[in-house]
Amino acid sequence: MIRRIGYADKELVKTKFPSEEILVRPKAIIECYQEIPCNPCETSCPFQAITIGEDINHTPVIDYSLCTGCGMCVYSCPGLAIMVAQIKDKRAYFKIPYELLPIPQIGETWHAINRKGEILCDCRIEQVMQSKKTDRTVVITASVPQEYLYDFVTVRKRP
Ligand code: SF4
Ligand code: SF4
Question: Of 30, 54, 104, 122, which sees the most CB atoms within 10 A?
Answer without folding.
Answer: 104
